[in-house]
Design a protein that fits this description.
Length: 529
């Protein structure tokens, strides 16, 4: 009898032990598993810390203890945290010290019938949380400037922080009343990089700029700065225009459009040229277009079409739209920020000649389908460019009579570059449209290369002495230009003195080679008007 009682007791204990160790079985299982990485000097101990899983607050969380291998398993279903919504976001946090949890928990989206893997970082307890906002400085405009409406200006700012600056966290605003009210310019912009802002046509003497950025700390500190003093926005008497070809043919009409709401109808002016890029600063150079043959205006739809002598009549034609009563603006020659235009470029038939051309205007779209399009008709053509990144590499595009294809970077023809263009079927004239640049152009030279192919993006020949090249060249550096028939070269003699062929400067519509001794430089190509 005594032996039987002992056997029964053992069986009860065994059954109870087995039942207690048996895992629960459910139709859907939710687990959060992961590991923890120590970070700090010295690294904080990890094993023995608690990890919690929660939706709203650590106070309502389930928890697990990190094992000696710095790993943990959170069994959600066994702890009756149901119902679980796989579409919701839950959080995992690690204990820093006694019931002190990290301020920036890891978000977790659970998956039914599977595992969700998480790796979190335990920072050393001696690390003090960063509560200091980034240092931001608006450098321009910073007070006293006069900016012209509709023109593009660079908002320049700097920022720094001990936790580094969060990428693309710059938000920019402007105020017209000395900072009382702010209007968004752009958000999520690159930090420590100038932002090009098209100034609105809202005149004021009380303008300011504000910039705010965020750091990378868990506290997501925000730093901000604004202009130290007010600057001025001057009203514009002109209306910004957009220009395009009516079709991809040489004699196609020119289409002008605008977006500005006006209470009175604009007055349009035209300046024409024979293709030399040489002008005199005379008010009579600009001719009023309203009411003339070949120029029709649809004020309601904000469009105008110019058809008169677009092809053979004028090699160059530039357009302005002014408010009535602002006729004095037409006295300004090329260009204020008002002018758009079209320029013809003659392309000889290959193989007799090639054309080393440059875009004499700034296209709205750099893609070759927009810059040139189908102007070679059913013929064949090629465009070649020379690039310094990667080192000394040619790129080209081929036109097969209907489409372009090739290796120009992004299939684009940006301004400020030279392009070898050849027509393989017949001599052609192509029309380039765009706006006339109003700010100095910036080009760079690398320290490990000596040969560069650039171009004149101004609709005017630039004299050597005023081009700004003397600031970056040294003695014996050379420039070659193809004038359509032969090579012309210039050699820099120092002290802004030049030798070589008797050319007037960087030629209108042409590209040019620069052979300089390797040296990192930035060339500010000064506008010639």
């Amino acid at each position: 009898m005594k032996r039987l009682i002992i056997i029964l007791i053992i069986l009860v204990l065994l059954v109870g032990a087995k039942a207690g160790a048996e895992p629960h079985v459910f139709d859907a299982l939710y687990f959060v598993v992961g590991s923890v990485t120590a970070n700090g000097t010295p690294p904080s101990p990890v094993a023995g810390r608690k990890v919690v899983f929660y939706k709203d607050s650590p106070a309502t969380a389930i928890e697990a203890t990190i094992d000696s291998n710095n790993k943990f398993v959170l069994n959600i279903y066994d702890n009756l945290m149901i119902p679980i919504d796989p579409a919701s976001t839950y959080y995992v946090a690690i204990e820093k010290d006694n019931n002190n949890w990290g301020a920036d928990p890891i978000p977790v989206t659970l998956k039914a019938e599977g595992w969700n893997n998480v790796n979190i970082i335990l920072y050393d307890q001696t690390i003090v949380a960063d509560t200091t906002p980034p240092i931001v400085k608006v450098e321009s405009p910073n007070g006293g400037e006069e900016w012209q409406a509709y023109s593009n200006y660079n908002i320049i700012f700097t920022c720094e922080d001990e936790s580094d600056i969060k990428e693309n966290s710059a938000n920019l605003y402007y105020s017209l009343d000395n900072g009382n009210m702010w209007t968004e310019i752009a958000t999520g912009q690159t930090t420590n990089t100038p932002y090009s802002w098209k100034v609105p046509n809202i005149p004021t003497t009380q303008a300011k700029i504000r910039v705010e950025v965020q750091d990378n700390s868990p506290n997501k500190n925000i730093g901000t700065d604004e202009s130290d003093a007010v600057f001025t926005i001057n009203s514009a008497n002109y209306i910004p225009l957009y220009i395009s070809r009516g079709a991809d043919t040489f004699n196609a009409s020119i289409l002008l459009t605008w977006e500005t709401e006006t209470t009175t109808d604009p007055v349009f002016y035209i300046l024409t040229g024979e293709g030399s890029g040489v002008y005199t600063d005379l008010a009579s150079s600009w001719i009023k277009l309203n009411g003339t043959n070949g120029f029709t205006i649809d004020y309601q739809n904000k469009t105008a079409i110019y058809t008169n002598q677009v092809g053979t009549g004028y090699s160059e034609a530039y357009f302005k739209a002014l408010y009535p009563g602002a006729e004095s603006e037409k006295d300004t020659l090329l260009p204020t920020a008002t002018a758009v235009g079209k320029v013809n470029i003659d392309i000889p038939k290959d193989p007799s000649q090639l054309e080393l051309a440059a875009l004499p205007l700034i296209p709205a779209n750099y893609n070759i389908d927009s810059v040139i399009g189908k102007q070679f008709g059913t013929g064949q053509a090629e465009v070649w460019g020379f690039y310094n990144a990667p080192l000394n590499k040619w790129g080209s595009e081929y036109y097969n009579g209907s489409t372009w294809s090739g290796s120009l970077p992004d299939h684009e023809m940006p301004p400020d570059r030279g392009y070898w263009i050849k027509s393989k079927t017949e001599a052609k004239t192509i029309t380039i449209v765009g706006y006339v640049p109003v700010q100095d152009r910036t080009m760079t030279f690398s320290s490990d290369e000596s040969l560069f192919l650039y171009g004149n993006s101004y609709p005017k020949t630039t004299a050597w002495e005023t081009s700004g090249l003397s600031d970056v060249l040294i003695e014996k550096d050379k420039i070659w230009q193809w004038n359509g028939d032969s090579w012309e070269s210039k050699i820099y003699l120092g002290n802004n003195q030049w030798g070589g062929a008797d050319t007037s400067g960087l030629l209108f519509k042409h590209g040019f080679w620069i052979n300089k001794q390797p040296k990192a430089d930035t060339w500010i190509y000064k506008k010639p008007y």
